[in-house]
Amino acid sequence: MGIIAGSMPRNDKIPIAILSRFPAWLYTKEVPKQDGHYAVWLAALHEGLKQQNDFDVHWITLSKGLKKPVHIDISNQHVHVLPRISRTVSQHSLYIVERLRVARELSAIKPELVHSWGTEDCYGLCARDFKGARLHSVQGALKAYVGSADFPWFVKVQSMYEPCVWKSMRHITTESPWAADRVRDIVPSAEPILWEYAVEERFFHMERNLAPVPQCLYSGTDIPIKNVGFLIDAFSDPRLAHIQLKLAGVPAESLSGIAPNIKPLGRVGREEMVKLLSETWALVHMSLGDTGPTIVKEARVAGVPVILSDRCGSVQHVEDGKSGYILPPNDREGFIRAVLKVTENAETARKMGEHGRGICCDRLSSATMLQHILDIYWRILRDEWATRSELWD
User: Fold this and answer.
1) Residue 30 — φ and ψ, nearest 5°?
2) How far apart are CA 238 and CA 207, in angstroms?
3) pLDDT > 60? residue 10
4) Is the dihedral angle over the CA atoms 318, 324, 328, 330 positive or is it negative?
5) pLDDT tens profile 279-289
6) If pLDDT is split at 50, 70 and 90, which confidence band does 393 have?
7) Residue 75 Rama label (left phi>0; alpha psi -120 to 50; beta)
8) Mean pLDDT of 27-34
9) Is 157 exposed, middle or buried (0-12, 13-18, 19+ CB in 10 A)?
Protein backbone atom coordinates (compact mmCIF):
# COMPACT_ATOMS: atom_id res chain seq x y z
CA MET A 1 0.00 0.00 0.00
CA GLY A 2 1.39 3.43 -0.82
CA ILE A 3 0.47 6.79 -2.27
CA ILE A 4 3.06 8.71 -4.24
CA ALA A 5 3.53 12.42 -3.55
CA GLY A 6 3.29 15.02 -6.28
CA SER A 7 6.45 15.43 -8.34
CA MET A 8 7.31 19.11 -7.80
CA PRO A 9 5.79 22.24 -6.21
CA ARG A 10 3.33 24.08 -8.41
CA ASN A 11 2.98 27.81 -8.98
CA ASP A 12 -0.31 27.91 -7.03
CA LYS A 13 -0.84 26.82 -3.43
CA ILE A 14 1.04 23.71 -2.35
CA PRO A 15 -1.35 20.90 -1.34
CA ILE A 16 -0.82 19.34 2.08
CA ALA A 17 -2.98 16.85 3.96
CA ILE A 18 -3.49 16.77 7.74
CA LEU A 19 -4.69 13.41 9.05
CA SER A 20 -6.28 13.69 12.47
CA ARG A 21 -9.32 13.26 14.64
CA PHE A 22 -10.47 16.69 13.56
CA PRO A 23 -13.73 17.87 15.22
CA ALA A 24 -15.58 18.39 11.93
CA TRP A 25 -18.92 18.27 13.77
CA LEU A 26 -18.12 21.75 15.11
CA TYR A 27 -18.47 23.12 11.57
CA THR A 28 -21.25 21.08 9.93
CA LYS A 29 -24.38 19.22 11.03
CA GLU A 30 -23.69 16.61 8.34
CA VAL A 31 -21.19 14.96 10.68
CA PRO A 32 -22.47 13.31 13.89
CA LYS A 33 -21.41 15.08 17.06
CA GLN A 34 -18.85 13.20 19.13
CA ASP A 35 -19.38 12.75 22.85
CA GLY A 36 -16.69 13.69 25.32
CA HIS A 37 -13.75 16.03 24.95
CA TYR A 38 -12.12 16.86 21.64
CA ALA A 39 -8.69 18.04 20.52
CA VAL A 40 -9.09 21.78 21.03
CA TRP A 41 -5.57 22.34 19.68
CA LEU A 42 -6.70 21.03 16.29
CA ALA A 43 -9.51 23.58 16.23
CA ALA A 44 -6.93 26.26 17.13
CA LEU A 45 -4.64 25.11 14.29
CA HIS A 46 -7.55 25.14 11.84
CA GLU A 47 -8.38 28.69 12.90
CA GLY A 48 -4.77 29.79 12.47
CA LEU A 49 -4.26 28.18 9.06
CA LYS A 50 -6.99 30.29 7.47
CA GLN A 51 -4.57 33.23 7.67
CA GLN A 52 -1.90 31.71 5.39
CA ASN A 53 -1.87 31.56 1.60
CA ASP A 54 1.06 29.27 0.76
CA PHE A 55 -0.65 25.92 1.30
CA ASP A 56 -3.85 24.33 0.08
CA VAL A 57 -4.81 22.60 3.33
CA HIS A 58 -6.85 19.38 3.31
CA TRP A 59 -8.00 17.92 6.63
CA ILE A 60 -8.83 14.20 6.47
CA THR A 61 -10.73 12.62 9.35
CA LEU A 62 -12.94 9.58 10.02
CA SER A 63 -16.36 9.45 11.60
CA LYS A 64 -18.80 6.73 12.60
CA GLY A 65 -22.39 7.13 11.54
CA LEU A 66 -21.65 8.31 8.00
CA LYS A 67 -22.86 6.37 4.97
CA LYS A 68 -20.83 8.38 2.49
CA PRO A 69 -17.98 10.93 2.61
CA VAL A 70 -18.67 14.54 3.55
CA HIS A 71 -16.56 17.32 2.04
CA ILE A 72 -16.81 20.90 3.26
CA ASP A 73 -14.78 24.03 2.54
CA ILE A 74 -14.37 26.35 5.50
CA SER A 75 -11.88 28.99 6.60
CA ASN A 76 -9.83 28.73 3.41
CA GLN A 77 -9.38 24.96 3.95
CA HIS A 78 -10.94 21.67 2.83
CA VAL A 79 -12.32 19.13 5.28
CA HIS A 80 -12.77 15.51 4.11
CA VAL A 81 -14.80 13.35 6.52
CA LEU A 82 -14.75 9.64 5.64
CA PRO A 83 -16.98 6.86 7.01
CA ARG A 84 -15.40 4.35 9.34
CA ILE A 85 -16.24 0.94 10.72
CA SER A 86 -16.06 -0.25 14.33
CA ARG A 87 -12.76 0.73 15.92
CA THR A 88 -12.48 -2.60 17.70
CA VAL A 89 -12.78 -4.45 14.41
CA SER A 90 -10.42 -1.98 12.76
CA GLN A 91 -7.80 -2.28 15.48
CA HIS A 92 -7.61 -6.05 15.09
CA SER A 93 -7.39 -5.84 11.29
CA LEU A 94 -4.53 -3.31 11.13
CA TYR A 95 -7.06 -0.55 10.32
CA ILE A 96 -6.99 -1.77 6.75
CA VAL A 97 -10.41 -0.33 5.79
CA GLU A 98 -9.59 3.15 7.09
CA ARG A 99 -6.12 3.09 5.57
CA LEU A 100 -7.51 2.22 2.14
CA ARG A 101 -10.11 4.97 2.35
CA VAL A 102 -7.56 7.57 3.39
CA ALA A 103 -5.18 6.33 0.69
CA ARG A 104 -7.84 6.89 -1.98
CA GLU A 105 -8.43 10.41 -0.69
CA LEU A 106 -4.72 11.16 -0.78
CA SER A 107 -4.54 9.84 -4.36
CA ALA A 108 -7.08 12.46 -5.37
CA ILE A 109 -5.45 15.31 -3.41
CA LYS A 110 -1.84 14.48 -4.37
CA PRO A 111 -0.31 16.33 -1.41
CA GLU A 112 3.33 17.34 -1.24
CA LEU A 113 3.30 16.69 2.52
CA VAL A 114 1.20 14.55 4.86
CA HIS A 115 0.97 15.60 8.51
CA SER A 116 -0.50 13.03 10.92
CA TRP A 117 -1.58 13.47 14.53
CA GLY A 118 -1.32 10.91 17.30
CA THR A 119 -1.14 7.14 17.65
CA GLU A 120 -4.42 6.87 19.57
CA ASP A 121 -6.16 6.06 16.28
CA CYS A 122 -5.15 5.04 12.75
CA TYR A 123 -3.90 8.40 11.46
CA GLY A 124 -0.22 7.69 12.06
CA LEU A 125 -0.56 4.37 10.23
CA CYS A 126 -2.29 6.13 7.33
CA ALA A 127 0.58 8.60 7.06
CA ARG A 128 3.07 5.73 7.25
CA ASP A 129 1.56 4.38 4.01
CA PHE A 130 2.25 7.63 2.16
CA LYS A 131 5.37 7.56 -0.05
CA GLY A 132 6.47 11.16 0.26
CA ALA A 133 7.26 13.89 2.78
CA ARG A 134 5.70 13.09 6.16
CA LEU A 135 5.41 14.76 9.54
CA HIS A 136 3.96 13.21 12.68
CA SER A 137 2.80 15.12 15.77
CA VAL A 138 2.65 13.27 19.07
CA GLN A 139 -0.51 13.64 21.14
CA GLY A 140 -0.30 10.93 23.81
CA ALA A 141 2.60 8.61 24.61
CA LEU A 142 0.68 5.35 24.86
CA LYS A 143 3.57 3.02 25.65
CA ALA A 144 4.61 5.25 28.55
CA TYR A 145 1.04 5.57 29.74
CA VAL A 146 0.27 1.85 29.90
CA GLY A 147 3.57 1.35 31.70
CA SER A 148 2.58 3.85 34.39
CA ALA A 149 -1.05 3.00 35.15
CA ASP A 150 -3.84 0.56 34.39
CA PHE A 151 -5.68 1.01 31.09
CA PRO A 152 -8.41 -0.87 29.21
CA TRP A 153 -7.28 -3.65 26.89
CA PHE A 154 -8.12 -1.51 23.83
CA VAL A 155 -5.51 1.11 24.82
CA LYS A 156 -2.92 -1.57 25.55
CA VAL A 157 -3.40 -3.07 22.09
CA GLN A 158 -3.37 0.37 20.48
CA SER A 159 -0.05 1.17 22.16
CA MET A 160 1.52 -1.65 20.15
CA TYR A 161 1.08 0.39 16.97
CA GLU A 162 3.00 3.34 18.40
CA PRO A 163 6.59 2.10 17.83
CA CYS A 164 5.99 1.22 14.17
CA VAL A 165 4.56 4.71 13.54
CA TRP A 166 7.30 6.61 15.35
CA LYS A 167 10.08 4.50 13.83
CA SER A 168 8.76 5.18 10.33
CA MET A 169 8.74 8.97 10.73
CA ARG A 170 11.78 11.03 9.88
CA HIS A 171 10.10 14.17 11.24
CA ILE A 172 8.28 14.18 14.59
CA THR A 173 6.99 17.05 16.71
CA THR A 174 6.16 16.96 20.42
CA GLU A 175 4.52 19.58 22.60
CA SER A 176 6.92 19.09 25.50
CA PRO A 177 10.42 17.90 26.41
CA TRP A 178 8.79 15.09 28.44
CA ALA A 179 7.04 13.83 25.31
CA ALA A 180 10.29 14.11 23.32
CA ASP A 181 12.01 11.89 25.89
CA ARG A 182 9.23 9.30 25.48
CA VAL A 183 9.83 9.28 21.72
CA ARG A 184 13.55 8.75 22.28
CA ASP A 185 12.78 5.88 24.66
CA ILE A 186 11.43 4.04 21.61
CA VAL A 187 13.49 5.66 18.84
CA PRO A 188 16.87 6.60 20.40
CA SER A 189 18.06 8.28 17.18
CA ALA A 190 15.00 10.53 16.92
CA GLU A 191 15.37 14.31 17.06
CA PRO A 192 11.85 15.52 17.89
CA ILE A 193 10.96 19.13 17.14
CA LEU A 194 9.41 21.00 20.08
CA TRP A 195 6.20 22.59 18.82
CA GLU A 196 3.72 23.95 21.33
CA TYR A 197 0.01 23.44 20.65
CA ALA A 198 -1.91 26.69 21.01
CA VAL A 199 -4.52 27.56 23.61
CA GLU A 200 -7.94 28.79 22.55
CA GLU A 201 -8.21 32.57 22.36
CA ARG A 202 -10.93 32.73 25.03
CA PHE A 203 -8.41 31.94 27.78
CA PHE A 204 -6.08 34.85 26.96
CA HIS A 205 -8.53 37.61 27.77
CA MET A 206 -10.59 36.30 30.69
CA GLU A 207 -10.78 38.32 33.89
CA ARG A 208 -9.68 36.78 37.17
CA ASN A 209 -12.55 36.83 39.70
CA LEU A 210 -11.32 34.70 42.57
CA ALA A 211 -13.89 32.86 44.69
CA PRO A 212 -14.39 34.41 48.16
CA VAL A 213 -12.97 31.30 49.86
CA PRO A 214 -9.89 29.34 48.71
CA GLN A 215 -10.54 26.74 46.06
CA CYS A 216 -8.47 24.58 43.70
CA LEU A 217 -9.48 23.09 40.38
CA TYR A 218 -8.70 19.82 38.64
CA SER A 219 -9.88 19.31 35.06
CA GLY A 220 -9.66 16.04 33.16
CA THR A 221 -10.85 12.47 33.36
CA ASP A 222 -10.66 10.18 36.37
CA ILE A 223 -8.72 7.38 34.64
CA PRO A 224 -5.94 5.96 36.86
CA ILE A 225 -3.04 7.75 35.16
CA LYS A 226 -4.55 11.13 36.06
CA ASN A 227 -4.00 10.28 39.75
CA VAL A 228 -7.29 11.81 40.90
CA GLY A 229 -7.32 9.48 43.89
CA PHE A 230 -4.19 11.21 45.14
CA LEU A 231 -5.95 14.59 44.99
CA ILE A 232 -9.00 13.26 46.84
CA ASP A 233 -6.79 11.76 49.53
CA ALA A 234 -4.77 14.95 49.96
CA PHE A 235 -7.81 17.22 50.15
CA SER A 236 -9.34 14.87 52.73
CA ASP A 237 -6.53 15.86 55.07
CA PRO A 238 -7.78 18.15 57.90
CA ARG A 239 -5.13 20.73 56.96
CA LEU A 240 -6.90 21.31 53.63
CA ALA A 241 -10.48 21.09 54.96
CA HIS A 242 -10.98 24.85 54.48
CA ILE A 243 -10.01 24.67 50.78
CA GLN A 244 -12.52 23.45 48.20
CA LEU A 245 -11.43 21.09 45.43
CA LYS A 246 -13.54 21.14 42.27
CA LEU A 247 -13.17 18.14 39.96
CA ALA A 248 -14.21 19.13 36.43
CA GLY A 249 -14.80 16.09 34.23
CA VAL A 250 -15.22 13.69 37.17
CA PRO A 251 -18.82 12.45 37.59
CA ALA A 252 -20.28 12.42 41.11
CA GLU A 253 -21.55 8.85 40.69
CA SER A 254 -17.97 7.60 40.33
CA LEU A 255 -17.12 8.76 43.87
CA SER A 256 -18.54 7.93 47.27
CA GLY A 257 -17.72 8.87 50.83
CA ILE A 258 -15.61 11.87 49.84
CA ALA A 259 -14.88 14.81 52.12
CA PRO A 260 -17.38 17.71 52.02
CA ASN A 261 -14.81 20.12 50.54
CA ILE A 262 -14.46 17.97 47.37
CA LYS A 263 -16.99 18.72 44.59
CA PRO A 264 -17.13 16.50 41.46
CA LEU A 265 -18.66 18.54 38.63
CA GLY A 266 -19.08 15.98 35.85
CA ARG A 267 -18.66 17.06 32.25
CA VAL A 268 -17.91 20.76 31.84
CA GLY A 269 -18.37 22.86 28.70
CA ARG A 270 -15.76 25.23 27.35
CA GLU A 271 -17.50 28.41 28.52
CA GLU A 272 -18.01 26.95 31.98
CA MET A 273 -14.30 26.09 32.06
CA VAL A 274 -13.48 29.77 31.53
CA LYS A 275 -15.61 30.64 34.57
CA LEU A 276 -14.02 27.91 36.68
CA LEU A 277 -10.50 29.08 35.84
CA SER A 278 -11.50 32.67 36.55
CA GLU A 279 -12.66 31.73 40.05
CA THR A 280 -10.06 29.18 41.12
CA TRP A 281 -7.08 30.09 43.24
CA ALA A 282 -4.91 27.35 41.72
CA LEU A 283 -5.01 24.46 39.26
CA VAL A 284 -3.83 21.06 40.51
CA HIS A 285 -2.72 18.23 38.21
CA MET A 286 -0.65 15.37 39.64
CA SER A 287 -0.70 12.99 36.67
CA LEU A 288 1.50 9.90 36.55
CA GLY A 289 2.28 10.74 32.90
CA ASP A 290 1.10 13.37 30.45
CA THR A 291 2.49 14.87 27.25
CA GLY A 292 0.61 18.07 28.12
CA PRO A 293 -1.90 18.56 29.58
CA THR A 294 -3.73 21.36 27.75
CA ILE A 295 -5.54 22.52 30.90
CA VAL A 296 -2.20 23.55 32.42
CA LYS A 297 -1.50 25.72 29.39
CA GLU A 298 -4.98 27.23 29.59
CA ALA A 299 -4.45 28.00 33.27
CA ARG A 300 -1.12 29.68 32.71
CA VAL A 301 -2.29 32.03 29.93
CA ALA A 302 -5.31 32.83 32.14
CA GLY A 303 -3.06 33.84 35.03
CA VAL A 304 -3.72 30.83 37.29
CA PRO A 305 -0.89 29.28 39.34
CA VAL A 306 -0.41 25.54 38.87
CA ILE A 307 0.65 22.72 41.18
CA LEU A 308 1.58 19.75 39.02
CA SER A 309 3.61 16.59 38.89
CA ASP A 310 7.06 16.38 37.33
CA ARG A 311 5.68 13.77 34.91
CA CYS A 312 3.52 16.36 33.16
CA GLY A 313 4.86 17.78 29.92
CA SER A 314 3.59 21.24 30.75
CA VAL A 315 6.17 21.76 33.52
CA GLN A 316 8.03 24.09 31.16
CA HIS A 317 5.25 26.65 31.71
CA VAL A 318 5.56 26.62 35.51
CA GLU A 319 8.44 28.16 37.43
CA ASP A 320 8.75 26.19 40.65
CA GLY A 321 8.02 28.36 43.68
CA LYS A 322 7.05 31.38 41.58
CA SER A 323 4.14 30.50 39.29
CA GLY A 324 3.32 27.23 41.03
CA TYR A 325 5.02 24.09 42.26
CA ILE A 326 6.43 20.99 40.55
CA LEU A 327 6.44 17.81 42.63
CA PRO A 328 6.80 14.03 42.34
CA PRO A 329 3.33 12.61 41.62
CA ASN A 330 2.92 10.93 45.03
CA ASP A 331 4.56 13.52 47.31
CA ARG A 332 1.56 14.00 49.61
CA GLU A 333 3.25 16.21 52.20
CA GLY A 334 4.93 18.37 49.59
CA PHE A 335 1.61 18.73 47.76
CA ILE A 336 -0.27 19.79 50.90
CA ARG A 337 2.42 22.38 51.70
CA ALA A 338 2.23 23.71 48.13
CA VAL A 339 -1.57 24.05 48.25
CA LEU A 340 -1.38 25.86 51.60
CA LYS A 341 1.27 28.22 50.24
CA VAL A 342 -0.56 29.12 47.02
CA THR A 343 -3.89 29.61 48.81
CA GLU A 344 -2.38 31.49 51.76
CA ASN A 345 -4.31 34.55 50.61
CA ALA A 346 -5.87 35.90 47.42
CA GLU A 347 -2.95 38.22 46.74
CA THR A 348 -0.48 35.33 46.75
CA ALA A 349 -2.67 33.38 44.32
CA ARG A 350 -2.95 36.39 42.00
CA LYS A 351 0.76 37.23 42.15
CA MET A 352 1.88 33.68 41.44
CA GLY A 353 -0.61 33.39 38.58
CA GLU A 354 0.72 36.53 36.93
CA HIS A 355 4.37 35.47 37.20
CA GLY A 356 5.60 34.56 33.72
CA ARG A 357 2.12 34.88 32.24
CA GLY A 358 3.28 37.11 29.38
CA ILE A 359 5.88 34.56 28.28
CA CYS A 360 3.27 31.78 28.36
CA CYS A 361 0.83 33.89 26.33
CA ASP A 362 3.46 34.44 23.65
CA ARG A 363 4.54 30.78 23.49
CA LEU A 364 1.01 29.42 23.44
CA SER A 365 -0.68 31.81 21.03
CA SER A 366 -2.22 30.72 17.74
CA ALA A 367 0.13 33.11 15.92
CA THR A 368 3.21 31.40 17.40
CA MET A 369 1.80 27.95 16.70
CA LEU A 370 1.02 28.88 13.10
CA GLN A 371 4.37 30.51 12.34
CA HIS A 372 6.28 27.59 13.81
CA ILE A 373 4.37 24.91 11.87
CA LEU A 374 4.66 26.85 8.62
CA ASP A 375 8.42 27.04 9.17
CA ILE A 376 8.47 23.27 9.80
CA TYR A 377 6.42 22.57 6.66
CA TRP A 378 8.77 24.66 4.50
CA ARG A 379 11.89 23.07 5.99
CA ILE A 380 10.61 19.55 5.32
CA LEU A 381 9.45 20.38 1.79
CA ARG A 382 12.69 22.08 0.79
CA ASP A 383 14.64 19.04 2.01
CA GLU A 384 12.28 16.78 0.06
CA TRP A 385 12.58 18.82 -3.15
CA ALA A 386 16.36 19.02 -2.82
CA THR A 387 16.55 15.24 -2.44
CA ARG A 388 14.40 14.71 -5.53
CA SER A 389 16.55 17.12 -7.55
CA GLU A 390 19.71 15.21 -6.59
CA LEU A 391 18.09 11.95 -7.69
CA TRP A 392 17.16 13.45 -11.07
CA ASP A 393 20.57 15.01 -11.69
Assistant:
1) -70, -20
2) 31
3) no
4) negative
5) 999 999 999 99
6) low
7) left
8) 89
9) middle
The full 3-state SS of the chain, as one line of letters, equals CCEECCCCCCCCCEEEEEECCCCHHHCCCCCCCCCCCCCHHHHHHHHHHCCCCCEEEEEEEEECCCCCCEEEEECCEEEEEEECCCHHHHHCCCCHHHHHHHHHHHHHHCCCEEEEECCCCCHHHHHHCEECEEEEECCCCHHHHHCCCCCCHHHHHHHCCHHHHHHHCCCEEECCHHHHHHHHHHCCCCCCEECCCCCCHHHCCCCCCCCCCCEEEEECCCCHHHCHHHHHHHHCCHHHCCCEEEEECCCHHHCCCCCCCEEEEECCCHHHHHHHHHHCCEEEECCCCECCCHHHHHHHHHCCCEEEECCEHHHHHCCECCCEEEECCCCHHHHHHHHHHHCCCHHHHHHHHHCCHHHHHHHCCHHHHHHHHHHHHHHHHHHHHHHHHHHHC
For the chain, the straight-line distance linking the first and the last C-alpha, in angstroms and rounded, comes to 28
Quick check: 50 and 77 in contact, CB under 8 A? yes
Whether the Cβ atoms of residue 5 and residue 112 lie closer than 8 Å to each other = yes
**Minimum mean pLDDT range among 5-19, 144-158, 340-354:** 5-19
Largest CA distance in the chain: 75
Angle value at C-alpha 308, between 307 and 313, nearest 5 degrees: 140
216 vs 33: which has the higher pLDDT: 216
78: burial class by Cβ within 10 Å (0-12, 13-18, 19+)?
middle
What length does the chain have? 393
CA distance 123 to 26: 20
Question: What's the pLDDT score for residue 220?
Answer: 94
Alpha carbon 192 to its chain's center: 16
Per-residue pLDDT band at 245 (split at 50, 70, 90): very high
Average pLDDT for residues 380-386, to the nearest whole number? 94
Asked whether the predicted pLDDT for residue 271 surpasses 70, the reply is yes
Buried b (16+ CB within 10 A) or exposed e, 291-306: bbbbbbbbbbbbbbbb
The CA distance from 36 to 196, in Å, is 23
